[in-house]
Design brief:
heterodimer, A: 251 residues, Rossmann fold, six-stranded mixed beta sheet, three-stranded antiparallel beta sheet, 8 helices, disordered N terminus, B: 456 residues, alpha/beta, 3 domains, four-stranded mixed beta sheet, two-stranded antiparallel sheet, 8 strands
C-alpha cells in the first residue's frame, strides 16, 4: 500500500498553510487543592503536528480535555469553540457491533454533516478501509479501529484535530501505519495536536513540541530546539535528552 | 439538527445492535412467546390434580346409607376422583410404597369397617368412621398441598354426612311429635307403632273429658300441658338441627378493590414480569454499553446531550415493551379471550409500564460500569422486588407489610401490574397507578441522569 503522505486527500479545512488555527491563552485548571494547569498558553498553525509530552500527571490529558470542550478551564481563553475542533479519545469510541460504514454514517448524521454519504465514502477512502466498510468494528485490528476512531473525529472537517495518545496499545507496525494516516491529514492542512508517552514518536512526527510538567508549560519548540536546550546532549538519543531536560528543570 | 432526528438515529442504532446480538434478540422473541404459551396452558387446562393412591378395603356388597340417604359408591368415587387423580392401589402396602417413592402425593385408605361405621351414624349407636391418609412430607409445600386438598374433601364429605344425619334426626323428632311406625332391623325389631306427643295429648284430653268432674284432674292436666308444650317446642328443633349440620354459612361481600378475574390477573402478571425483565435488562444494558464502548464522551461532546440520550433509551425501552408485550398477548389470545376492544387502554398500560421499567433500567445502567454488571444488578434488584410486590395484604405482619407497601410504591412492578390489570379487564381505576408510574419515571430518570455524570 502506498504511504498516507502519497495518498494525501484534499485539505479538510479552509485554513491556509501556516495560519494560526487555534490559540490558547493563560489556561488554568484546578482540581481541589491541586493545580492541574498553570497559565498554559500556546498556538498551533494549519497543517502543523503539535506533540504534547511530559511525565505522568503533567497535565496533558487535562489540557486536551479543555481543548476538546469536555472540561471548562477555570481561567483562560480558547480561540476555537468545541464544534470547530475534532476530538479523538484515547480508547476507540466506537460501536463494535456496527460496521465501519455504519459507525461513520451514524456519527456523520449526529454531526449534521451536509452530505453524509459522500463524507462517509471519503473517510473510508482516507482510512484505507473502503474494502472493509462492511466489517464490524470489533473484528478490526487495534490499528484499524484507531483509524476509524480518528476518521470520526474528522467527519465535521475540523481545522484542528486532537488525538489523545493515539498509538497507545498498538504494535510497532500498526503505529507506523497510523502515523502515515495522521501525516496525510497534516499534509492536507489539518492542524493535529496529539499527546503521547512515546518520546521518539513525538520527535519523529511532531513539528513542534509542547512540554508540560506539573501543569506548567516548560518548553515550546521543535525537537531540535529541545535537544539544543540540553547542554552536551548531542550524543544522547532524544529520550535521554528529554529526561535530562526535565531533571535540570527540577521535574 | 433536530433533536427528534438524533433520537431516531440513536434508536435505529440500538435496534441494529440488538439485531446483531442473536442471543438477546432470540430471548426477546422467545421469552414472551414461552411465557405466553406457559400461562396459556396453565389457564386453559386449569390446575393439575394431585395424584393420590386410593385403597378401598370395603367389601363390595356393602351399601353406603346414612339415615334414609343412600350413597352410590360409584358416584361417590367419581366425585372424589374429580378433585384428585385417583391411582388405584391393590392394598395398603402398595399405597405406602407409592407414597414413599413419590409416585403419588398421598394415599387415601378406606378401611373395611368404613361403611359400617358410616351407616351407624344415623342409628342409635353411632361410631365415627375414619379415613386413613398416608403422606410424604419431604417437601413442605407438597405436604401443605396434600393437607389442604384432603382436608377440603373430608370437610365436604362431613358436611354432606352431617346433613344426612340431621335429616334422620329430624325424622325421629317428627316421629316423637306426630307418631308413626319405626323399625330397627339390625336389632331384630320389626315395625313399632309410636304414638307421638300430638296423639298422646289428644288421648289424654279425651280421657280427661270422660272422667267425672269430681275426679282429681290437676295431675292429668299437667301431663297434657307437658305433651303440648313438648310438641310445640320440638318444632323448633328441626331448624336447629339444620343449623348444626352447617353451623357457619358464608356470605361474601367485596368491600374494597375491584378484583380482576383470575385469568386477567394471571395475564397481567405474565405481561408485567415479561415487561420487567425485557425492559429493565435491555435499557440498563444499552445505557451501560454507551459507557463500555467509550461512546458516551464522544456523544455528550455536543452531539447529543445526556438528557437526550436518556430520552432515547427510555424510548427504546417503551418501543421494545410494546413489541414484546403485543407478541405475548397475541400468543395468549390463542388460549384465552383477550378483550381487544380495550386495545387503547391496554396500549396505554403497556406504554406506562414500559416507561416505568425503562426508567428503572436506566437508573441501574447509570450505576453500572459495563453491560454485565448492569445485567447482574438488574436481576438482583428486580427479581426480589417483583416477588415482594406480589405479597397480598393480611398475609404478613403489619410492620413487614408496611415495608412491602413502600416497595410497591417505590418500584415499578406493582403499579405496572395494576395498570395492566386495569387495562386488560378494567379492574380498578387506572389513574392512581398511572400517577405512581409517572412519579417513578421522573425519579428514576433523575437518578439515571445523575449516574451518567460518572460516564464522561
Amino acid at each position: 500500500m502506498a504511504s498516507a503522505r502519497d495518498q494525501a486527500p484534499g485539505a479538510l479545512s479552509a485554513a491556509a498553510e501556516g495560519e494560526v488555527v487555534i490559540e490558547a491563552r493563560s489556561l488554568r485548571k484546578r482540581f481541589g487543592n491541586r493545580e492541574a494547569l498553570r497559565d498554559v498558553s500556546f498556538e498551533a498553525r494549519a497543517g502543523e503536528l503539535l506533540a504534547i509530552i511530559g511525565p505522568n500527571g503533567a497535565g496533558k490529558t487535562t489540557l486536551l480535555s479543555i481543548l476538546a470542550g469536555i472540561r471548562s478551564p477555570d481561567e483562560g481563553t480558547l480561540s476555537r469553540t468545541r464544534e470547530e475542533i475534532g476530538w479523538v479519545p484515547q480508547q476507540a469510541a466506537l460501536y463494535r457491533k456496527l460496521t465501519v460504514e455504519e459507525n461513520l454514517r451514524l456519527f456523520a448524521r449526529l454531526e449534521a454533516v451536509a452530505d453524509v454519504e459522500s463524507t462517509v465514502a471519503e473517510m473510508l477512502e482516507q482510512t484505507g478501509l473502503a474494502d472493509r466498510r462492511g466489517d464490524q468494528v470489533g473484528t478490526l485490528s487495534g490499528g484499524n479501529q484507531q483509524r476509524v476512531n480518528i476518521a470520526i473525529g474528522l467527519l465535521a472537517r475540523p481545522a484542528v484535530l486532537l488525538l489523545d495518545e493515539p498509538s497507545s496499545g498498538l504494535d510497532p507496525r500498526q503505529r507506523e501505519r497510523l502515523w502515515q494516516f495522521v501525516l496525510a491529514l497534516s499534509d492536507a492542512g489539518t492542524s493535529v495536536i496529539f499527546s503521547t508517552h512515546y518520546i521518539q514518536e513525538a520527535e519523529r512526527y511532531g513539528d513542534r513540541l509542547l512540554v508540560l510538567a506539573d501543569g506548567e508549560r516548560v518548553f515550546d519548540g521543535t525537537p531540535s530546539d529541545l535537544h539544543a536546550a540540553v547542554p552536551d546532549s548531542r550524543s544522547d538519543d532524544f529520550e535521554s535528552a528529554f529526561v535530562r531536560f526535565l531533571r535540570e528543570r527540577g521535574h | 439538527m433536530s433533536r427528534l432526528r438524533a433520537v431516531g438515529w440513536l434508536l435505529a442504532k440500538d435496534l441494529r445492535l440488538l439485531r446483531r446480538s442473536p442471543l438477546v434478540t432470540a430471548l426477546l422473541i422467545v421469552y414472551p412467546i414461552l411465557i405466553a404459551v406457559l400461562i396459556g396452558f396453565a389457564l386453559s387446562r386449569g390446575p393439575e390434580k394431585p395424584r393420590v393412591a386410593f385403597v378401598n378395603e370395603i367389601p363390595t356388597e356393602e351399601q353406603a346409607s346414612v339415615g334414609g340417604t343412600e350413597f352410590d359408591k360409584a358416584e361417590t368415587r367419581a366425585e372424589l376422583c374429580g378433585r384428585i387423580e385417583c391411582i388405584d392401589a391393590a392394598d395398603r402396602e402398595e399405597a405406602q410404597r407409592m407414597v414413599a417413592d413419590g409416585e403419588v402425593l398421598a394415599a387415601l385408605i378406606l378401611p373395611a369397617d368404613f361403611l359400617e361405621r358410616l351407616n351407624s351414624l344415623a342409628g342409635l349407636d353411632p361410631q365415627q368412621p375414619t379415613v386413613e391418609v398416608l403422606v410424604n412430607e419431604e417437601d413442605p409445600v407438597k405436604g401443605q398441598l396434600v393437607d389442604d386438598r384432603i382436608r377440603a374433601l373430608i370437610t365436604e364429605a362431613n358436611l354432606i354426612l352431617s346433613q344426612a344425619v340431621s335429616e334422620q334426626a329430624g325424622s325421629y323428632l317428627d316421629l316423637i311429635v306426630d307418631g308413626g311406625s319405626f323399625s330397627v332391623p339390625f336389632l331384630g325389631i320389626g315395625d313399632l307403632e309410636i304414638l307421638g306427643l300430638r296423639r298422646s295429648a289428644q288421648i289424654l284430653s279425651e280421657i280427661r273429658d270422660s272422667l267425672p268432674a269430681s275426679s282429681r284432674l290437676e295431675g292429668l292436666d299437667q301431663v297434657i300441658r307437658f305433651a303440648e308444650l313438648a310438641r310445640e317446642n320440638l318444632k323448633f328443633a328441626l331448624p336447629l338441627l339444620g343449623a348444626i349440620a352447617e353451623p357457619i354459612a358464608v356470605d361474601k361481600q367485596v368491600v374494597s378493590g375491584e378484583t380482576p378475574s383470575l385469568d386477567a390477573f394471571a395475564i397481567a402478571v405474565a405481561a408485567t414480569v415479561t415487561l420487567m425483565f425485557v425492559t429493565v435488562l435491555l435499557v440498563a444494558g444499552s445505557l451501560a454499553l454507551e459507557r463500555e464502548e467509550n461512546a458516551f464522551p464522544r456523544l455528550a461532546r455536543g452531539l447529543v446531550s445526556p438528557g437526550l440520550l436518556l430520552a432515547e433509551k427510555l424510548a427504546l425501552g417503551i418501543a421494545v415493551s410494546v413489541a414484546v408485550t403485543a407478541l405475548m398477548l397475541a400468543g395468549l389470545s390463542a388460549f384465552v379471550a383477550i378483550e381487544w376492544d380495550r386495545l387503547a387502554v391496554i396500549a396505554l398500560a403497556i406504554v406506562a409500564g414500559g416507561a416505568g421499567f425503562a426508567a428503572f433500567g436506566a437508573a441501574l445502567g447509570g450505576l453500572a460500569r459495563d453491560v454485565r454488571a448492569s445485567s447482574l444488578l438488574a436481576f438482583m434488584v428486580a427479581l426480589p422486588v417483583a416477588f415482594l410486590s406480589l405479597i397480598p395484604s393480611g398475609t404478613v405482619e403489619p410492620g413487614l407489610y408496611t415495608a412491602v407497601e413502600v416497595l410497591r410504591v417505590a418500584f415499578p412492578f406493582a403499579p405496572s401490574l395494576e395498570v395492566m390489570s386495569a387495562g386488560l379487564e378494567g379492574a380498578g381505576s387506572i389513574w392512581p397507578p398511572l400517577l405512581n408510574l409517572a412519579a417513578i419515571v421522573l425519579i428514576y430518570a433523575g437518578l439515571a441522569r445523575f449516574g451518567m455524570r460518572r460516564f464522561a
